[in-house]
Amino acid sequence: MSAEHLGAEGPEVGTGLTGRSSELDLVRAVIDDTARLGGSLTLFGDPGVGKSALLDAAADLARARGMRTLRAAGAQFEANIAFAGLNQLLVPLVPLFAELGPDHESALRVALGFGDGATPSRILISTAVVSLLLLAAREQPLVAIIDDVQWLDDASADVLSFVARRVAGTRVRMLSAVRTTGEPLHIRGDVNSLTMHSLDDSESEALLLARYPDLAERVRRRIVSEAQGNPLALVELPATLTSDRYPTADALPTVLPLTERLTRMFSARIATLAPETRDLLLLLALDGSGQAMSAESVVGPDAANQLDIAERERIVVVDSRHSVVFRHPLVRSAVVELARPEQRRRAHRALAGCRRADPGRRAWHLADASFGPDEEVATLLQHESIQALKRGDPSAAVAAMTRSADLSPDPEHRSQRLAGAAYFAAEVMGDLQSVSQLLTDARRLDANVGSLATASAAASLMLYSDADVVSAFRVLTTALRAPEAEPTADEINSAIWVLSVIASLNGRKEMWDPYLELVDRYRDMLPEGLLVRSEVVSNPALVSLEALHTLDQEIATLATELDPGQIIRVGYVANDVDRLADLREPLLRVWQDAARTGAVASVTNALMLLCAESYLAGRWDDTQRFAEEGLERAESYGYVNFVWFLHYSKALAAAALGQQEEAEELLEVMLAWSIPRQAFIVPQHVYRVRTLAAIGRGDYETAYAEATKISPRGLEPGTARQLQLFVAYDLVEAAVRTGRSDQARDYVAAMLRMGITKISSRWAMLVAGAQGLVSEGEVASAHFERALAAAPDNLWPFERGRVLLAHGEHLRRERATVESRIRINAALTIFDRLRAAPWAERARNELGATGVSRRQTGSTDVLLTPQELQIAALAASGLTNKAIGERLHLSARTVSGHLYNVFPKLGVTARAGLRDALTALTAQEDLPPGGVVRQDPGGR
């Protein structure tokens, strides 16, 4: 095996072995004799761990240094031939025999079979070999490399061990490798040694990526798990997983097949065992549960004896709980590989009949025991596929459904099951290549291609691979309106879900109306969650309290939900009605679990929803990080439909941060992508980002123009979509700032008519804030205070900051200077924390308008924190700690703690000094005359 086998990465000789830099350094030190290591080194390690590759790299390194190399390798069939290994090593030096002394020449010729004579002593032969190697190294340094020493004949091993201990200080180097698996090897004498360990997971991933860059992620992870860091296994296992044997990446077998080379390497000890022991090992390998009891119930009382033999032979390990573990997963594979097909089928039948077998294992054992099509087993596997999806194992779901199709005697059933597997592969796994192949097979069996499952899978493929909205819509609505066969509830559920995604992307009445009509047609067959989805996605403004209650109940169940598809579906509904904060943990779990299992569609959907959640939560670095990872996955796997939303998430965060050029570049990409695909909802998202960016830079005329592109006829209950609601507050602010007061009041009236405050505390805050924007005097202040009291402090920070800023601006105009500063400084604190540069700049300008210099802005040396200033003002007005706490939703103890910090900052020792201290503070900051602390009317 050459250095390339372990992932050569660079042109420098001997430096390209993945994960072997320290081993290479030691080999280099021996060859160069830089560390005075005695000129010899023996490598120890399991089969396939990379000993031979390291010896190859050593040979390349030696040749690059102008050294001569001699090589030999032990062979099992020559182990009983005396001096066979020595003969192999020294044949190139036969011409030099004549230059040795007569005794040494004669000893070598006789020992190596080149002449006749009396049998020489072992010591004479050993000294003759030392002399020969020194003679050969006289003009050119020499390296002797011996692989597989465990199979050398004893005579050669003894002589070479003698030589290895005597090359120190000479121009001869000796490197050897010994396999350690099996019985411990008798080590001859003291030698420098290095035990080579397996690669870790990251090194294994790197090796696979270097050798097989196109390998599906979940296949790569499976191979990493099975190989357990064995480089040879990592390199060879992918060769067994050819597309003709396993047409989809999800159909990988329970026990991976081995190449002939791996079989030879891992099966040597198994082949010598008695048939009874091998039968037991086969049952354990195929069972996969690791429980000796399963095999005992099949084999009988002799199982314990056979297990003892297998453990004594170092093939398995039995722990204190009677769990059986193969010493290496590939030993397990070798057990299966050595068994004949009829033996494997017999073992599967026996395991299926075991009373301890769970339904899923039983279905798979029956499938693997089948000679041909079997509808009963196909039905069991179809059920197992659904259960696997609910357990959160989408890869197993696709594999079970695909195998169920293989076992279906009826072509129509087979076609439907292939289509079901294709749907799972598209919606959860993201394996679009497999989807295409599965659909092709389904159509081949069903010329009419009339099943709803086929239509759903085909529509998903069109949607995700090229965002062909029109074709996907036509295929699915045709199948739903006139299904060829009686569809199942699951098929209806899947089809309606895909149709909702299509209608959402198009965003036009021409698709919404047929979607709602079909929802109504199949209402009795749809689960509550999907009915809520239809109510929310088409018009969140009209969502009923009952639907929101149902959604909240569904969200509450997700803490223990394993099915990633269910979490994603609920997540998309929650996104439309501001409940993603309650799904953060389940979505993070989907992201992590799906990334581990290779479910690309699930992980990308989760990342998109996490983008939306983190944006509203003000974690904009997370938004951009999630979007970047999602883009990498979507683009790598051809999920075109996801790319636009991930660009949108990045652009939205960039606009909020003030990175307007970066945002605009992303928006142009979105527009160019959406127009030819009739994905009309995408430009709406573009207008939303441009509205936000324009408000940030104070360009309210542009903001109004962009927002009215989303709501050209204003805001009305019957026409409001999610994006119209998202820009409602922006529309009001832009209208107010551009002198369109009547329009602004109309927009607020429409928001109140829609009743959107019931959706979430965010909407309650924004609607009340919009009322404050269009009102005057104390009425406006009351609306702003109600807005700030409507939502918890820790939710919706960006929107909260905007309402605080608007309130502060209003108070400044009303000459309530101290209260104005409290609000504006609180807004500035939020914007600085979020790094919302345009809004922070606005807040600083507003503070400047209250008399605070830019040098003072935000300085805790001059200003108290917003909450401290607020509490100090209320305490100065005469309120008790308890009264202040009730007003600010704080405990009296917390209020006391804040005052404890405030007193030294203001240079006072009691509450009585607060009013004068605050008055003095306003005077220091150049407030207009009469700027005194008023009693805060309540709120934050």
From TrEMBL:
Keywords of the record: ATP-binding, Nucleotide-binding
Domain of life: Bacteria
Gene3D superfamilies: Tetratricopeptide repeat domain, Winged helix-like DNA-binding domain superfamily/Winged helix DNA-binding domain
Pfam families named among the record's database cross-references: AAA_16, GerE
Keyword Nucleotide-binding tagged: yes
Domain HTH luxR-type, residue spans: 857-922
InterPro entries from the UniProt entry: AAA_16, P-loop_NTPase, Sig_transdc_resp-reg_C-effctor, TPR-like_helical_dom_sf, Tscrpt_reg_LuxR_C, WH-like_DNA-bd_sf
Ranges in coiled-coil conformation: none
Keyword Transferase carried by entry: no
Record protein name field: AAA family ATPase
Organism: Streptomyces aureus
